[in-house]
Amino acid sequence: MISAGNDIVALQAVDVQRTRLPAFYSKFITPAELALHNPNEIALVNFVWLLWSAKESAYKYQKRLDTELTFTPAKIAVQQLSVLGELKSDIDAHNQYKGELQLHHTTLPFLAVVTDQFIATVIDQGDVNWAVKQIEASDYETQSKAVRNFLLDNLKMPGVSIEKHAAGYPILIKEGQELDIAVSFAHHDRYISYAYQISK
């Protein structure tokens, strides 16, 4: 069965001082995970939110496969993290990371992009489509509408609507039938992101 999971953290919206406190990050980062931190490659604040984002992505991915699953980030173990290198574009410079985590008995690979503005992650399992966009406002209604339109504009599938499964994750509907496309949405402050995978 296909699935999708992604997350985004707007760095301008996080409490930097609180993030640096062991009393905060130790609630969801274990000593073994903290040992993965290389301060020469990534600042502690970014490392903390990268792991949070990866765990959130994994939860969304597995929730579609196990609707009874609850989000307990301390029990999602990031086991590997490595930098793929810095990429520069006309807009910004960013680092890409890859890693692996374990949720119960399932091992999932993830990709992450870290810029000065945001951290975005996606579970990199199968043929995944993934995109990030900045929007004008940060209220929930604007975020929710914008991320849905962002996906539909890029899918280019007329007649498709987005609804919510009873378990809480988004589903795509056409002519009253659920499509075999796994979708995940993320938004934080003025950033939105989607990920999807189409069954083949």
Automatic annotation (TrEMBL):
InterPro entries in the cross-refs: 4-PPantetheinyl_Trfase_dom, 4-PPantetheinyl_Trfase_dom_sf
Molecular functions per Gene Ontology: transferase activity
Claim: Transferase is one of the keywords in the record: yes
Protein keywords: Transferase
Residues in 4'-phosphopantetheinyl transferase domain copies: 5-89
Pfam families on file: ACPS
Protein name: 4'-phosphopantetheinyl transferase superfamily protein
Lineage of producing organism: Bacteria, Pseudomonadati, Bacteroidota, Sphingobacteriia, Sphingobacteriales
